[in-house]
Amino acid sequence: MRAAVLTAYNAPLQISEIPDPAPGPGEVLVRVAASGVNPLDTKIRRGAAAHAKMAPPAVLGIDMAGTVEAVGAEVDHFGVGDQVFGMTGGVGGVAGSLAELATVDARLIAHKPTALSMEQAAAIPLGFITSWEGLVDRAGVAAGHQVLIHGGAGGVGYLAVQLALARGAQVFATGGPASQEVIRRVGATPIDYTASTVDDYVDEHTGGEGFDIVVDNVGGATLDASFTAVKRYTGHVVSALGWGTHSLAPLSFRGATYSGVFTLLPLLTGEGREHHGHIVAQAAALADARRLVPRLHSATFALGEVNDAYQVVENGSATGKVVVQPHA
């Protein structure tokens, strides 16, 4: 089969012929129709993601959608011909989806939503799983909550907005001037962080009380701002990028709480993989109910154009999630 292979860090991926994989116990063989490109994928290529490193030679690609071609032993909930999607590899030594075929742990995948194309389905897993783990598993988002999502037009934030809305919350989302209309169209109240201070938008939208849940998808100073935007006593901040050194004093003085989200753990450790399969099944249900639609980049890329796809993500010119089609 053809695959995009990482042969050295910070070098272009090489299109190579490598042996077809075969599914082992608990695995399925998938003919990959689409592979979503995340900013993390590009960091792994550069050798800049120690927490998710892939040692060359390696096939990258975290998210995928495709069709089951063979089923290994001990798999009884997928069959040949099933269309599936999930966050299946590309980190910690697990082979990824930038290939014509991939063997994947059946616990990590779900049946693809019928309402979405393969490309749309491949744009969902990492961002949705991150959002679910933060909003549902950690913060218990529910009807009546006021939720602030930082980076509401981004790959994770755009899905987080839709998830919070589907759970009945009132949603606000920050972004720059160019993101305001995108945020408004997806159903959240947009906040231009370049024009309003934290105090300004907390006063305007919560009467100074603070938001019930604040979701940080940016890190750094944005996480610090989250600690001052959350509601006293009952407020909860969740972050997928809380990796720096931060003062907890503003959060502590509000009597609020914080949770970190590290979406890669099941892939890295093998623990909790069934939960990721459950989460992407929830994504499929929301998509089929017309409550979840990803935002795609204006162009898709063939496998031979994978380095162009990575460049679009790295230089910030993407207009939505970038997807590679290994069979195009």
Automatic annotation (TrEMBL):
One Pfam family recorded for the sequence: ADH_N
UniProt xrefs under Gene3D superfamilies: Medium-chain alcohol dehydrogenases, catalytic domain (3.90.180.10), NAD(P)-binding Rossmann-like Domain (3.40.50.720)
Keywords: NADP
Keyword NADP: yes
Annotated SMART domains: PKS_ER
Record GO terms (molecular function): oxidoreductase activity
Domain Enoyl reductase (ER): 10-324
Keyword tRNA-binding: no
Residues annotated as signal peptide: none
Domain of life where this protein originates: Bacteria
Transmembrane feature ranges: none
Database matches in PANTHER family: QUINONE OXIDOREDUCTASE (PTHR44154:SF1)
Protein name in the entry: NADPH:quinone reductase-like Zn-dependent oxidoreductase
Organism in which the protein naturally occurs: Mycolicibacterium fluoranthenivorans
